[in-house]
Design a protein that fits this description.
This protein has six helices and two strands; from the N terminus they run H-H-H-H-H-H-E-E. The chain has a two-stranded antiparallel sheet with strand order 1-2. Helix 1 packs across helix 2. The longest helix is centred in the N-terminal third of the chain and has 25 residues.
Length: 119
């Protein structure tokens, strides 16, 4: 009898984890993360265009309101470096470039004293 309860709890946990991942993907934050990944890949693949600026600014304005997701996503795909490179390529006179350069090329090596594995 107890084994069925444990199996049921494990199955419920697996279903809950999968649903949570799906909900994250379709949530506004998940959509913004997907958009930032797309824009970063477009820049890295040299298929970006000057018209992407609006998409970059909208995505960044949303993700900046969620610092933990912002930091994790930036650690994964380095979207700030991609955005900086995008501005340097398409809008070299942009006033944000100096600040972005300083931020993009400074990488943390620890969070709360815990070392971060570098690529």
């Amino acid at each position: 009898m107890q084994s069925w309860v444990i199996i049921g709890m494990v199955a419920a946990l697996i279903v809950w984890i999968r649903l949570r991942k799906k909900l994250k993907a379709v949530s506004p934050i998940g959509q913004v993360a997907a958009e930032l990944k797309r824009l970063s890949q477009a820049y890295n693949g040299s298929v970006d265009s000057p018209e992407d600026l609006t998409a970059w600014e909208q995505a960044l304005s949303v993700i900046e309101r969620h610092p933990s997701i912002y930091n994790k996503l930036n650690g994964d795909i380095h979207f700030i470096q991609a955005f900086t490179g995008y501005l340097e390529k398409n809008y070299p006179e942009d006033a944000r470039l100096e600040t972005l350069r300083q931020f993009a090329y400074y990488r943390k090596d620890s969070i709360w004293g815990i070392p971060i594995k570098r690529d």
